[in-house]
Specification:
single chain; 404 residues; alpha/beta; globular; binds S-adenosylmethionine; binds iron/sulfur cluster
């Protein structure tokens, strides 16, 4: 564990002021003092891909505000989060790199905060990496796996490392991705990357690959948020970590779409206090746990005995809080999102598919495993991706706006 903690610290922290802030935050969290440590921040609802499994699909399609959050609004929210103790922000979307002003967005984060950005890599170039670095980016999370084989570029990832930006391969921990995740770990060892384990949102019963998850989670190159922000084996969602959407809605987690307030209506401090006071009482390994089997395995492995009360009903795959006490205090979201949930559930989409082989991906320079994404999805939309710059705009063209 210590080896892992040291490794993660080395990979993530880029200057002594960030290091000092993180250590102070750790002490505060351990002392039980309320503090907000990490913010997941969606800064656009535009995406140039249409991944079948995307957790943000409902939010993107039911967007309530203009698709790119203005930089000044990002700055204000970041300052409010900073005042609450924030030591890390992950910039997400949508696809953050569709914004031409993404460098201003990164620059709007206080410099003693570790900034990561998650991308499908389609629009990344060396020049853009340089500009992200200048703006203050610490880590780039390049999504990796079946949906990203066409876009992931290993050479570019290596370039990031050479420029002092840490690279994390962001993978989804489900059985059909196992070979890709193994390839990601091999690459991480060779090229000094890390691997971020995304706990999967239940969708069509494709849950966590428990066996592999528990085998790999103590690997020094494995990053995982519930080992970090709230102490070991304690989910940070709603207490030490929140998700702010491009619409300003505040949620516990990017994969659970219950809304507890909006930063355009009241200070983040008030929303966070409400959430913290509520969620600190609800201890869990991961609030995304949705089935008894997964819950049992995680408790057994972690040596915990968290309550079954929080196991989701699965009535809404975009919001596992439905039917649990965690819905109390949430506000009604967009009804359009609910309609999208229902339509998505009703649509006869094929499964995520059989395990993908890693092939020669880790060695071929672009890291892509053999084969295309399951269902033929996850490839770029039409010809646009061939000319990525054509997509980067401040005012989205109809082709960039996710279709309803
Ligand atoms: C929603 S994407 C947004 C950033 C960017 N467009 C991208 O794909 O990298 C952020 C990360 O969440 C992961 N993700 C998407 N849907 C997920 C799901 N249902 N369960 C777990 N992770 C998911 C993606 O693989 C990606 O690494
Ligand atoms: S690239 Fe895929 S996972 Fe990322 S936001 Fe777009 S559709 Fe979702």
């Amino acid at each position: 564990m210590l080896r892992k903690a040291i490794k993660q610290f080395q990979l993530g922290v880029k200057n002594p002021i960030q290091g000092a802030r993180i250590l102070a935050s750790e002490a505060k969290m351990r002392a039980g003092i309320r503090t907000l440590r990490s913010v997941e921040m969606a800064v656009t609802w535009i995406c140039n891909l249409d991944c079948d499994f995307c957790y943000a699909e409902d939010l993107m399609k039911a967007q309530k505000k203009p698709p790119h959050m203005p930089v000044e609004e990002v700055r204000r929210i970041m300052q409010e989060a900073h005042d609450l103790g924030m030591i890390h922000v992950n910039i997400t979307g949508g696809e953050p790199m569709v914004r031409k002003d993404i460098y201003d967005v990164v620059d709007a984060v206080p410099k003693d905060v570790v900034v990561s950005l998650v991308t499908n890599s389609t629009l990344l170039t060396e020049e853009k990496v340089d500009k992200l670095k200048d703006a203050g980016l610490s880590t780039i999370q390049m999504s990796y796996g079946s949906y990203y084989h066409d876009s992931f570029k290993r050479d570019l990832a290596r370039y990031c490392v050479s420029k002092g930006i840490s690279v994390t391969l962001s993978v989804v921990n489900i059985a059909s991705e196992r070979a890709n995740i193994e390839a990601a770990f091999a690459m991480a060892e060779e090229d000094d990357f890390s691997v971020l384990f995304n706990y999967p949102m239940i969708y069509k019963n494709v849950g966590l690959d428990s066996e592999f998850y528990w085998k790999m989670r103590y690997h020094p190159r494995c990053r995982e948020d519930n080992m970090f922000w709230s102490g070991k084996d304690r989910c940070p969602a709603g207490t030490h970590k929140v998700y702010v959407t491009n619409d300003g809605d505040v949620m516990t987690c990017d994969r659970i779409h219950a809304i507890y307030g909006n930063v355009n209506d009241e200070p983040l401090a008030d929303i966070h206090k409400r959430m913290y006071d509520k969620f600190i009482q609800h201890k869990s390994f991961c609030l995304l746990e949705t089935c008894d089997k997964q819950w049992l395995k995680n408790n057994e492995k972690a040596g915990r005995n968290y309550s079954t009360d929080l196991l989701g009903t699965r009535s809404d795959p975009f919001n596992v809080f439905e039917g649990t006490p965690l819905m109390e205090g949430s506000v009604e979201g967009s009804t359009m999102a609910k309609e999208i949930h229902a339509a998505r559930l009703a649509s006869a989409k094929p499964d995520l598919g059989e395990p993908q082989t890693s092939g020669n991906g880790a060695a071929n320079g672009n890291g892509a495993a053999n084969g295309s994404a399951p269902n033929g999805k996850g490839s770029t939309n039409g010809s646009e991706a061939a000319t990525p710059d054509a997509q980067a705009s401040d005012t989205p063209s109809p082709s960039e706006t996710p279709s309803a």
